[in-house]
Every structure is written in structure tokens, then in C-alpha cells.
Amino acid sequence: MASLLSRFCRKLALPGSAHGSRMTSTTACGSETVKSLNLYSAINQALHIALETDPRSYVFGEDVGFGGVFRCTTGLAERFGKNRVFNTPLCEQGIVGFGIGLAAMGNRAVVEIQVADYIYPAFDQIVNEAAKFRYRSGNQFNCGGLTIRAPYGAVGHGGHYHSQSPEAFFCHVPGIKVVIPRSPREAKGLLLSSIRDPNPVVFFEPKWLYRQAVEEVPEHDYMIPLSQAEIIREGSDITLVGWGAQLTVMEQACLDAEKEGISCELIDLKTLLPWDKETVEASVKKTGRLLISHEAPITGGFGAEISATILERCFLKLEAPVSRVCGLDTPFPLVFEPFYMPTKNKASSSSSLSSPSKTHIF
Amino acid sequence: MAQHLKSSSKSILLNILRHNIGFSSPSHASRHLRHNLPHGPLTTRLSPNPITRYCNTMVDTLSSIGSHEDTNSQVMDFPGGKVAFTPEIHFISESNEERVPCYRVLDDNGQQLTNSQFVPVSKEIAVKMYSDMVTLQMMDNIFYEAQRQGRLSFYATAFGEEAINIASAAALSPDDVIFPQYREPGVLLWRGFTLQEFANQCFGNKSDYGKGRQMPVHYGSNKLNYFTVSATIATQLPNAVGAAYSLKMDEKDACAVTFFGDGGSSEGDFHAALNFAAVMEAPVLFICRNNGWAISTPTSDQFRSDGVVVKGRAYGIRSIRVDGNDALAMYSAVHEAREMAIREHRPILIEALTYRVGHHSTSDDSTRYRSADEIEWWNKARNPLSRFRTWVESNGWWSDEAESDLRSKIKKEMLEAIRVAEKTEKPNLNHMFSDVYDVPPLNLREQELLVRQAIKSHPQDYPSDVPL
């Protein structure tokens, strides 16, 4: 599985890389050295660059001092000092609240929530303070320098509290941005963009890919734009939309579908709020079918927003109902994880992707 | 030199708590205070009866841990440091025998107490302080009435808390950043926010710096270093700690100051903020306006500790309890606290005891849960304005004439401010969509077009005083 993922990520990287031509997602230019990095190393590199390029930037959260439980903050405290990279008490509302205060004074605060499942104590600070800081003050104040990083998603054995995908809660909050990278190279560029974006950003990192995904990552300072979706695989029969680790699953569904002669267009949304409706709309108007897939529970998941929007905009072009292949409406189970997850076969069997005789309802 | 709360220095500590203005470091305080600090002996209570100790009816203070010479003076290392052993089973009492005393300079009638220590205040500052307290009170009165007349949608007064508002502001520098709750407009007033600017925000007109987005009294001013009010309780506390850390890192001669009420001290953000402030060694002042009420909830339903001041120690924070209706005491306490915070990079907790004379807001009628007599008593007997006025006049710095001149001037200014604010048009519709992000994203640009179409189709659904 790991090697499959490695191959896949390098495969994913191709469309987005400098010589990948049709994509405009990279700002890399000239000669660039690349290095084979996994996701946590790519994120680590982004953090090093962020702290290096702005002396008024800070990284903090639980256990970040020694490198973090997922090693994303390795070497930062040694290099930039404990005044800029430090452990905080175990208190998410304090971490985010403190980060808002730092950002409000013009600093960049890159805070880490140890696992997205624990972000909820900070929800009030994020929704009522960070998201509204600029608006309520009439633009006298802002906390745009705030970036909240959190590992999210299934990991194989995480159960209720190490597997959640809470992105939908945050997509409902005007004033913040929600960004989810699919691979090491994407993560570095998107994280640097998020840190430097003048708005507070919640950045969910697919923890499944921290070690599993390996990719050639340019060593220099580069940014990938927010709110721009990327077509990572072109096709003509059906559009598939996803983000984060789920794209690796969807890519496999595409490969299987192609054996049946179905040409799939796969889109990485990257930024969920504000999301790039135009790219998805143009694609669906071309293909006539849409399948959305995410790990988070199907009811009220972000797939519902995409589905409703595309229905409004592309109704007359649609040849089939929009499919959503998602996690189930249960707390994330341990033993039952394989049954819960939106697998490639569930995607393949869904009404949009399969021929009528093989249709299942997922 | 910082005083750490080791058990060995508890005797010094107890003295200081009882005899001076309450901070645990005499060397700092004495530089500014008129009188030297007395030190007295401490009587240690040793219980001779093991059974009594087991029942814990005697020993009341935290500082008595490890104080008994009859225990083996063995010590053990744990993560976090050495602790002494005791073979006696002994629970720290849930409260001290005596409540933490309250620092004051003036008595109820505004007479300076004979042995009081305080930071001297010049005539200019004292007169400005008193004038601003009067202005605040009159502003509150007139806006409150305007709401009753239907000219304002909402208002919240700070009656009874004028000394907290003005005296704390007076003791700070303009570079100190303020994170208010919502009952501290006096800090803005002190710093130069005009009555017109207050009125503009209350009426949500196009001159409101907040661009008409929030309810009245949700003021903010980046020019005056006063972060915009948000109605959520205590959320500003951890924000203030982050801001304080920034000031420390930038080596500014400034601190962060945040206000909250007795109710706010129950919120999780209070605990998060105090703990962070102590660990991060952030120069932040936590000023609690303990005014006895959180809407209809009295403090007896809010906490069972000796108020808020005792919670500071739990987080390793130096704390003081002050008479919030005594302008000189507030001034001195905040002045001293600020110095310590900036010089020593530490947070300070100030509990200002006061009384919320007014209703919680114009949406509240507090006679439904407390007696009108109680309100009246506090308004008369402990009025911060009359107490301070007595002191100011005793120095020959104020008079009845000055008072009536001031009051008529403010009344005129207030009525004019309201007249102008009411007449001024509202902010343009496009300000509904600006500032959600730094630049409006596509979905907001689309929604603005949709709203404008809707207005064209059904103009009667929309207020006509919002320019398009």
C-alpha cells in the first residue's frame, strides 16, 4: 500500500510540477533543486522558510518544541529559539486565542492543534473572534497573520479521536479560509500561501500521508495560490472532486473506470473556503457528471455544498444525479473503519461512475 | 527582584498581604509609595492534636504547607521540583479564614485614610480624571434615555464603575493595548474618543469606524489602541496574552490590559488566559470588575472562591484586590501593576470590587432580581464620583461652579453629538461585503449583485436610509 501511494504521489505530482504544462498552480521558475520528501518534511520545510523570511513569525502548540508528535516542527526551536518556537499548555482555546492576539499585533502566528479531533475547544475563538476580527472592527484591526494547522483524517487505527475530518464545520464560517493539501509538494506551497495570506486560515494536513506520501519537493521558497482548484487528471465523461488523502483513493477509482472506457476528470479543490466554483462548473459542463468524495460523514459534509452549487449552475448539463461517496453518519469507528471509509470500489459502484447495471447507492 | 511563592517565604508573604497594598514584592512598591512598609511577626499555628488536624478545622492558609518543624525535613524530587514530605494527612482548606483584604485610599466619604499608600496624582490628572468620570456618567445617562425614547436600539451603562474605567486608563500609557469586555468605554474616553465618535458607533452611521456592523457600545479604535468590543464573554483574555507577548518580544515599553467581569471569570477562556500568561511570562494586566452581578446572577451563584483575586495564585500570578469605587486606589494599583508587568515580564491580576448600579443593559430590568433599595444604597453610599470629588475639592482643585460648568458643557455636547449622529447617513451597502476578507472573494461579489437585484425588485423590503 505504501509503495502504491508513493508511486501515486509522484504520479499526482506530475501534472502540478514545473514541466507539467497545463497547470498554473506553481510559481516555481528557473532552475530549482528538488528533494524527495514526505509530507511532514515538506511541511517542516515550509515552516523553516516561513520563520526565516519573517522575523515576526511564531510557531507554537502542544509539544512543538521537540519537533512535534508528527515531527512537523523538527529543528525549528533549535534554529529560531524558544521565544519563537515553543510549547504551550494543553489548552486549544488558549493556543488559538493567544495566536489571535499575536496576529492582531501584526505577527504571523502559525499554531498547531495536535490532532483536528481536538480543535473544538478553539471553535469559539475561531468563529467568534478570528473570523470576525477584521469585519467587526471596520478593518481597523485584523488577525490575518493567524494560521491554524491540524492533522486530520483516517490513519488506519485512529478511532473516534484520531481520525476526524472536521472541515465542514469551518467551511460554514465567513471570514476564515480552509485549505487542505493532497501531497508533500502541494502542502509546502499551500502552507506558505496560507501563512502569508492576510486572512486567518485553517490548514488541515492529511496525517495518513505524513510518512506514506513521498514526492519531489522543490527546496526553494514557493507558494501555491489559494482558492484555485487544480485539474490533476483530465477527462471527458465524469468529473470527480475531492481533497487531501481522498484523492489517492479517487485516482484509483479513475484508473479502474478507465479500464471500462470511462474517461475521468479529477479535480483537487485544495481550498474549501472560499472554493473555486468556476473550475468545477466548467468541468461539469464539459463532462455532465459529478462525483464528490470525502472521508467526513456524508450528512452535512462539504460535498453537499458542492453538489447544491453545481446543481444550481449546471442542471441542464447534468446527465446523472450528483454522487457523494463519503464516510458514514457514525462516529469514526475503530474495528469498522474499513466499512466506514469511502473506498475506491464504493466510488466505482456509485451511480455516476458505473454503468446502470452495476449501480449501487453510496 | 521577583518573589517566588516558596513555602519558606510564606511568612513574608502573609505580612505583605496583610499590611501593604498587597503586592508580594515590597522593594518595588516602596519606591513609589509615601510610607515604608511595616513588617510584623507572623504567628504560626501548630495544632497539637493529630485528630484535629485530620479533621482540618484549624489550618486555613496554603502557605502553611511544609511549615511545621516537627515533620522530617525530607524532601523529594518530582518533575517540577522539590517538595517536602509530611506524615500528616492534611487537606488545604477550601478558603482562608479571612478574606483577602481590599486596598483603598479614600474612605466612603472621600476622606484620605491616614496610613494609606498611594501613587501621587497631579492636579491636572486629578481634574481630568474627575471630569472624565462625570462625562462618562452623563454620556451613559443621555444615551440610555435616547434608547428609552426609541432613538437607539440598545445601550449598556457603566454606572457605578466610573472609577474603574477612568482611573485605570489614567494610570496607563497610550501605548498600552486594551482588550475590553463591553463596560469600559471610559478608557476610550480618557484617551480622547469624542462624544461624537461614541454616538456615531451607537447610531451605526457612516462615520462609525466599525462601519455599522455591530450593536451599540461595541466600540473600537486602532488609533487609541482599543481593540473592538465583541459581546462574547472573556474571549478577549487569551487574545490580550498573545498581544502582551508580542509587546515583550518587540521590547516595547507597554503592556496589554484586559477587562472582564465576575461572570467572565467563570469562562474557560479566563483559565486558559491566566495559565498562558504565567507560562509565557506575558506583560498583561487582568482587571476584573467584580460588580456583584452577571445579568441576574449574583456572585454567590458564580463561584465559591473568595472572589476572583485568589485565583491568581492558582496560576502563579501576583494579584491584588482593590476598592473599585476608589479612584486613587485604582490608579495606584494599576500604576504599580503596569510597572511590574513590563519590568518583570509577568501578568498581574487586579480584582476591583464594585457594584453595577445600572441594569445589565437596556434589555434588562434589574429590579426583577434585586431590590431597588440595594441599588440606591450603592449609588449613594459608595458612589465613586462623590468620593473622588471630595478628595479633589479638598485639594482646592474643584468647585461647585466648575461642576455645573462641566455638566452643562457635556450636556450640550452630548445632545449635539446625538443630533448629528442621527442625521448622518448609514454606511453604504457595499460595506456589508467588505472586510469579511481583505479582498471580497467571488462568492461575495456575486451575492452583492443578487442583493442589489432584490432591492430593485422589492425596494419596500429594505430600509431606505442605507445608501446603495
UniProtKB/TrEMBL annotation, chain A:
Organism: Brassica napus (Rape)
One record GO biological process: branched-chain amino acid catabolic process
Subunit structure: Heterotetramer of alpha and beta chains.
GO molecular function, one term: branched-chain 2-oxo acid dehydrogenase activity
Listed name of the protein: 3-methyl-2-oxobutanoate dehydrogenase (2-methylpropanoyl-transferring)
CDD domains referenced in this protein's UniProt entry, alphabetically: TPP_PYR_E1-PDHc-beta_like (cd07036)
Subcellular location(s) of the protein: Mitochondrion matrix
Gene Ontology terms: cellular component: branched-chain alpha-ketoacid dehydrogenase complex; mitochondrial matrix
Cofactor(s), names only, from the UniProt record: thiamine diphosphate
Coiled-coil region: none
SUPFAM superfamilies on file: Thiamin diphosphate-binding fold (THDP-binding), TK C-terminal domain-like
